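Fold it.
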Amino acid sequence: MKAAISIFGCALIASFWFGDAIPSFSEEAAGRDDDAPSNVSPPPVLAVPLAKASDAQKLEGIATVLNPDGLLQLDADIRSATVSENFSRGQLERFRASTMLSKQMVENAVRQEGIDASALRLALTRLRQTWGDKAPFLNAESRQALMSDIADGSRAILRLDFSDTANGIPQNVRVVPLRGGQETKVDEMWAAPSGNVAMPGVSFLGLIKAGPGLRIGDRARVIADNPESPAGVVIPSAAIVVYAGKSWCYVKMGPGKYERKEVSLEAPVQEGFLVKSGFEAGTRVVIKGASILLAREATPGSLDDDDGGGAEPQKPAGAGTGSPSPVAQNHTGPRADPD
């Protein structure tokens, strides 16, 4: 009697402790039937639509504050040549209008007017070749105001070198002193007539308000926006998973259906990675639960029925070529008759 009571008590305790745990484990490990009730919730997966790339890519380079003495001297030469050319041209007009002067005097006036005009053209050519065809001070009226600001130190002229090649002039260009400080926006900017041998890429010249850390010869960090509009979509960083040495993300194909697609990480942006092909705006990618999907895909037999089918999991090397597992043999083999 006591033995029967002990056996009954042990069975009751075992059913109390393990009765609920065993079904939950088997449903999670082997998958559950859609028609059978279950307490196991599907993995927490959150997918969001991809947005079209709108943020401009950043360009970085080095800015050097140039010495304006050469520019100021060239401006003085242009002014002097302009005065001489105006005087010679006026004198030639007076000599031609007079009938009391000899032919030789008129010819000398013509020659002098030509010399002075050539000197002025040479000075203007030097200005264009040294500072570029788009320099704002090529115009005589603008040059007077700019030279006055540069001479009194209120404005500085910069050389901006970018290692990244960009088509067009960078936008929203800011300069930050290397020793730290506030950003200063470049007022005017144009293409430099020559490149920088020490920093291959593209070079520009610009004007900026002078300030601390921007003295003649100082170097500064320059930040700008790429003028080219980025094409493509931005894959969020949270969507990236790494598998087999490559980067992937999961695309939601339908209710409970996900497809793994490779992602290029060559163009990082502020919110993730810019991808120019292979994805369209509005495509939903998984940003939460991607590691769970990857684990279920990489582990054979771990996909639940609620994963919606999808691609079959990849089998490990050698799978299907060897003999069945001992468990399978014991489960499927015929039972021997003890008689």
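The first strand starts at residue 46 and ends at 49.
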